[in-house]
């Protein structure tokens, strides 16, 4: 089977048009909502996730990828302003859209996200029980600014609010500086290879990516409390992929969150992988197969192996290359 996609769009509850691509499976069945994330939280749909969508399509799972609001081809102003709570809501609007498509079983929809979007997907799954499960790849969980930067960013964001109220354009900051660090003090960074990809994403095929966000993005991140939302996960099945060498979202933080989920769950450790390369390399097909196996098990009601059995903190854990 040859992979293919078609351009699609859907409406959000607050009236924006979100644009993306649908990779329809050959027969009616499950579907996954897939959004980009990784170390930058303003990635567009051409970054990282098309290969995942193609592999899901080949496995009989329809996949929807899209540009998050304010980014890429999707509507929303100011451009490159990231609002995590709005993105959580947009997952639900994407699900509502998928439920109208003839290719999709409306009761078999999966929330999927990586890094920043991995955290957003978990929050969406905690709130929207129409989803059948969440697949979260190396979720980014710490959005604290450094003590030195925190008061400065807040003060500048208030000045920016006054300036924008007076009709001036928003203030923008690069997500990563030339030193590979976040100028607002968010605990993300990049090594030489990661930095090259992020700041040169246009030449790698992501023509609409910009290495910048509005200053108000950080105000919204400060207000966001994802752990308070994820406590409502209840019996939602969760698959988490945890890179062994993740230096951006520490594996111990990911494990700690995973162990709070009471429902069917699986933690898969990607051995020798870091935050950015977890979805690349010769191990990628096996990683996709593991995800597809989990999805098929949950949809078929084969949850016994993923239920808390009192061992290893009640997790079903596997290690992979």
From TrEMBL:
Highest taxon above the source species: Eukaryota
Coiled coil: none
Gene3D superfamilies: 1.10.10.800, alpha/beta hydrolase
Stored InterPro entries: AB_hydrolase_1 (IPR000073), AB_hydrolase_fold (IPR029058), Polyketide_trans_af380 (IPR051411)
Domain named AB hydrolase-1: residues: 49-282
Family, per entry: Belongs to the polyketide transferase af380 family.
Protein name: 31.7 kDa protein in traX-finO intergenic region
Native species: Tolypocladium capitatum
């Amino acid at each position: 089977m040859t992979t293919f996609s078609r351009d699609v769009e859907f409406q959000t509850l607050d009236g924006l048009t979100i644009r993306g691509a649908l990779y329809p499976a050959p027969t009616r069945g499950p579907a996954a909502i897939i959004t980009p994330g990784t170390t930058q939280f303003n990635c567009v749909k051409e970054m990282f996730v098309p290969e995942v969508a193609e592999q899901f399509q080949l496995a009989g799972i329809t996949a929807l990828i899209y540009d998050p609001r304010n980014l890429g081809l999707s509507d929303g102003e100011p451009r490159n302003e990231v609002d995590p709570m709005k993105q959580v809501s947009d997952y639900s609007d994407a699900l509502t859209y998928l439920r109208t498509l003839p290719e999709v079983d409306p009761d078999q929809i999966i929330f999927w996200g990586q890094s920043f979007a991995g955290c957003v997907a978990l929050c969406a799954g905690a709130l929207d029980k129409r989803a059948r499960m969440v697949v979260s790849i190396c979720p980014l969980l710490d959005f604290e600014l450094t003590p030195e930067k925190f008061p400065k960013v807040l003060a500048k964001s208030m000045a920016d609010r006054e300036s924008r109220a007076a009709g001036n354009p928003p203030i923008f900051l690069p997500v990563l500086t030339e030193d590979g660090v976040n100028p607002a003090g968010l605990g993300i960074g990049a090594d030489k290879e990661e930095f090259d990809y992020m700041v040169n994403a246009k030449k790698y095929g992501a023509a609409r990516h910009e290495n910048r966000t509005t200053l108000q993005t950080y105000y919204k991140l400060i207000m966001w409390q994802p752990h308070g939302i994820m406590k409502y996960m209840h019996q939602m099945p969760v698959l988490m992929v945890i890179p062994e060498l993740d230096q951006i979202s520490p594996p111990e933080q990911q494990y700690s969150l995973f162990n709070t989920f009471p429902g069917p769950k699986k933690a898969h450790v990607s051995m020798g992988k870091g935050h950015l390369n977890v979805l690349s390399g010769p191990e990628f097909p096996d990683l996709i197969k593991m995800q597809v196996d989990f999805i098929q098990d949950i949809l078929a009601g084969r949850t016994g192996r993923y239920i808390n059995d009192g061992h290893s903190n009640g997790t079903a854990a596997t290690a992979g290359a």
